[in-house]
Amino acid sequence: MTRIILSILIAGASFVFAAEKPNIVLIYADDLGYGDLSCYGATKVNTPHIDRLAEQGKRFTDAHVASPVCTPSRVALLTGEYSHREAPSIPIFLKKPLCINPDKETAADVLKRAGYATACIGKWHLGFGATNPVDWNKPLSPGPLDLGFDHYYGVPVVNSHAPFVWVENTSVVGYDPQDPFVYGKKSVTRVFREKMQFDAIGGAEKAHHLYDDEKVGTQLKDQAIAWIKQEATDKKRPFFLYFPTTNIHHPFTPAPRFKGTSKAGMYGDFIHELDWMVGEVVKSLVETGVANNTLVIFTSDNGGMLNMGGQEAIAKGHRLNGDLQGFKFDAWEGGHRVPFIVKWPGKVKPGTVSDQLIMNNDLFATFASITGQKASQGQARDSINILSTFITEDTTPVRTEAVITPKDTSHRLLRSGDWVYISAIGGGGFSSQRVGSHGFGGAAAMRYAGNKNSDYANGKIKPDAPDAQLYNLKSDPRQEKNLVLTHPDKAVEMKARLAKILTMDRTAP
Question: Exposed end of the chain (fewer CB within 10 Å): N or C?
Answer without folding.
Answer: N
